[in-house]
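Why should sequence recovery work at all? Because a backbone constrains its sequence more than one might expect. Tight turns favour small or flexible residues, buried strands favour hydrophobic ones, and helices have their own preferences. The token representation captures these environments compactly. In the example below, the structure is given first.
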């Protein structure tokens, strides 16, 4: 199967994980799209990548102009798209280009929209939000399949924002079997201190404030280890808070390809809570750290009312807390002992590994779904 994959960032590690999944499933993939902050050495073609130019986070006008420029030069991608069985686009801005390219070069190809988060502008009540949803709705009517990484994206957003949807398939952000560095069976060192790990993109200032207050209130009982990429535009005082809070440690970035087993084996719990876009994207998503913690032995801490908490409840596993979070989190850590920790860790170990890991069979299921119309449709969320 020949697949042309239009993406918002050619250098996004998540894009390359999806590429590996598609290759494992038997697809021959060409990658086309923009870069975010990093320009390839050759701004044209580099291997199987075709770069349309550079875009920037939080610069909607610049990104819109970049898409318009790419649309005017769509002839550049003729070779990559001609003869494609499937044209897939990750995020709305590249779906515009994918739809144009299909019409020009591969009208028989299936068009697939892959949405892994819903940007806050898509929910805006003003003219910008209305215009974006109108564009999205028109493009969705041309699509043969919608891929989402969490069922809540389909039920809470798409099914309520648009009257007409293509078939929908949920493809969770599970860890590729080829990415596993080891099977972590050993627990973290006995607590206390009970160690909470917060890994990945660190963007939630409210989470940082809650965790900082927790370690200040219970010194010696709980520690927090942060690793990954802090977004200092959303947490401008990140370094000051870390420096002023003993028990709250930032250990820098990590290599997802080699370090996951070690960083998760060093903590008892993994923080999966995110208020960055509460009530919307943060409420609906299923984060990577949910699956990483499950594979490598760290127990997820989640809010009961959000999709991550509901995932854990369905599995009868993990720690699900209620609001106000400050109070329920403090109650949990003060009542924690070795026996209770062993019990909650055992709940995670009872979950089948295929809930966390994407093996070769799952990769083939994805490419099969892309090649035909078999997918799961969703119903509208009640009271939405």
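From this structural description, the recovered sequence reads:
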């Amino acid at each position: 199967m020949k697949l042309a994959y239009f993406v918002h960032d050619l250098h996004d590690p998540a894009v390359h994980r999806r590429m590996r999944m598609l290759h494992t499933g038997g697809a021959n993939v060409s990658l086309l799209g923009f870069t975010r902050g990093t320009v390839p050495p050759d701004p044209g073609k580099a291997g199987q990548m075709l770069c349309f130019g550079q875009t920037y986070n939080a610069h909607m006008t610049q990104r819109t102009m970049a898409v318009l420029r790419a649309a005017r030069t769509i002839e550049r991608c003729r070779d990559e798209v001609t003869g494609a069985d499937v044209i897939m686009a990750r995020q709305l801005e590249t779906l515009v280009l994918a739809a144009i390219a299909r019409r020009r070069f591969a009208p028989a190809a299936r068009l697939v929209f892959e949405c892994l988060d819903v940007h806050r502008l898509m929910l805006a009540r003003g003219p910008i939000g209305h215009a974006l949803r109108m564009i999205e709705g028109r493009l969705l009517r041309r699509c043969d399949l919608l891929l989402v990484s969490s069922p809540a994206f389909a039920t809470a957003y798409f099914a309520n924002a648009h009257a007409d949807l293509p078939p929908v398939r949920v493809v969770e952000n599970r860890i590729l079997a080829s990415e596993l560095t080891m099977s972590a069976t050993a627990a973290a060192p006995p607590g206390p201190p009970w160690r909470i790990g917060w890994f990945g993109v660190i963007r939630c200032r409210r989470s940082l404030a809650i965790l900082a207050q927790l370690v200040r209130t219970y010194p010696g009982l709980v520690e927090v280890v942060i690793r990954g990429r802090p977004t200092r535009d959303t947490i401008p005082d990140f370094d000051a808070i870390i420096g002023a809070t003993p028990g709250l440690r930032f250990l820098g970035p990590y290599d997802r390809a080699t370090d996951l087993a070690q960083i998760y084996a060093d903590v008892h719990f993994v923080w999966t809570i995110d208020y960055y876009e509460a009530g919307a994207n943060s409420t609906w998503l299923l984060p990577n750290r949910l699956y990483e913690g499950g594979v490598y032995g760290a127990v997820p801490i989640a809010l009961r009312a959000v999709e991550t908490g509901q995932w854990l409840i369905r599995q009868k596993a993990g720690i699900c807390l209620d609001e106000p979070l400050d109070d329920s989190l403090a109650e949990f850590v003060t009542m924690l002992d070795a026996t209770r920790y062993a019990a909650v860790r055992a709940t995670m170990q009872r979950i089948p590994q295929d809930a966390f890991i994407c093996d070769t069979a799952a990769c083939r299921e994805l490419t099969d779904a892309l090649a035909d119309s078999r997918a799961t449709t969703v119903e509208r969320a009640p009271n939405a």
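A few observations help interpret the result. The chain has two domains: 2-174+358-371, 179-355.
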